[in-house]
Amino acid sequence: MGLPAIFSAGSGSRSWVFLSNVAVLITILTPAGTIAAFVWTGKANIPATILAVYVCILTTVLLALLLRQEARYRHESRYAVAMIPVRKAFSCLGDGSWNLIEGDGSESSFLLRLRESLGFLAEAFTLIVDNPCRVSVKIISSETAGSSSGQDRRDIQVVTLCRNSEEMEKARIVRDRIGNNTDFKNIFVEDALFFFCNDLPAQLKKGYQNSHWDEDVIRSEKFDYRSTIVWPIGRSRLLVPQGQQQAREIIGFLCVDSLATNVFNETYDVPLGAAFSQALHLALDRYRAGKSPSN
Predict the structure, then answer these.
(1) Residue 260 to residues 133, 212, 293: CA-CA distances in angstroms?
(2) DSSP-assigned beta bridge partners for residue 177
(3) CA within 13 Å, CB half, 209
(4) Residue 230: what are its φ and ψ, rounded to 5°?
(5) What is the pLDDT of residues 123-177, one digit of tens each?
(6) Is residue 14 very low, low, confident or very high in pLDDT (cuts 50, 70, 90)?
(7) Secondary structure letter of residue 131 according to DSSP
(8) What one-character-per-residue DSSP string does 215-237 give?
(9) Is the pTM for the entire model greater than 0.85?
(10) Which segments of the chain does DSSP mark as H helices, in order?
(11) Does the CA dihedral 105-109-112-113 come out positive or negative?
(12) What is the CA radius of gyration of the chain?
């Protein structure tokens, strides 16, 4: 069961700062007000009332601060148990990469290992956020990427390569235009490091686009996920020579989503997915090279 947004781990530190300032302000003003009331009236009942109100308000504020801290550290503490499936996720991905290099190099074997790897990553995020999560890998369609420098990057399409569960695989292959999806467009066109949102339906009024959410889905609110984090799968910026202005080479996207809202924490969850997306780049780059016409 999730907490209200003000107490959620992903709500940032603004609520913490606000409540702290309120507690400090009350602590400073209450003694001064008590003394002033006593001097002004010469009676003790009014100062006693002020002190009683002070104790009630301070207790409420401290309880709110305690709930905020508990929500924050509960998210952090789940990373301990989640490290087991995280290690398995990286291990399975490594096995798939080595199979391309020294094994039979078959596409089916690699995709099997990749699905197992995504399954462990989904398990890790499920443990961390305490809500079911899904993971998928989408790659840039080579048929639409082209080689023309004047091509509109928004017209390039992506296709789902693998999901964390075989039961989730679609029977049909759906190509999604980058320009029709806010998450892909922010990364691929606008050069964002990642896309993070804890309440996607709330962003619809602000221009959020999802090519799988048609008018019927939006009207009925039958969304298959409501929170998501998306990372680019590509060469790390740290490896790009300084002064080089060319766009990043992005070959795909790593997507994690959940049906619940306010579950992800940008501070802790984003770096985990970023590390895995970098490992995916090495594996998928080898995979794409094996599928090229020259091979």
Answers:
(1) 9, 18, 43
(2) 157
(3) 13
(4) -130, 135
(5) 999 999 999 999 999 999 866 555 445 567 888 999 999 999 866 555 446 788 9
(6) low
(7) S
(8) HHHHHHT--S-SEEEEEEEE--G
(9) no
(10) 14-41, 45-102, 107-129, 142-145, 182-188, 215-220, 266-291
(11) negative
(12) 25
Q: Cα–Cα distance between 64 and 23 in angstroms, integer? A: 11
| Closest of 109, 107, 167 to residue 139, by C-alpha | 107
Cβ-defined contacts of 11-14 (< 8 Å, 24+): 11/262
Cα distance between residue 133 and residue 119, in whole Å = 10
Query: Side by side, which strands form the sheet with 227-234?
Result: 175-177, 157-163, 133-140, 250-258, 227-234, 195-197
Burial class (CB in 10 A: 0-12, 13-18, 19+), 246: exposed
Sign of CA dihedral 25, 262, 118, 238: negative
How far is Cα 243 from Cα 240, in angstroms, rounded to an integer?
A: 9
Residues 195-211: tens digit of each pLDDT: 999 999 999 999 999 99
At residue 127's C-alpha, the angle toward residues 123 and 129, to 5°, is 115
Any residues with CB less than 8 A from the CB of 77 and at least 6 apart, and which?
A: none
Residue 257: beta bridge partners? 134, 228
- Name the DSSP letter for residue 210: -
Angle (CA) 125 126 131, round 5°: 130
Query: DSSP assignment, residue 174?
Result: -
Single-letter amino acid, residue 212: H
pLDDT at 5: 45
Q: For residue 289, what are the CA distances in angstroms to 6, 144, 194, 230, 242?
A: 47, 17, 25, 24, 27
Cα-based angle 173, 174, 179 (whole degrees, multiple of 5): 155
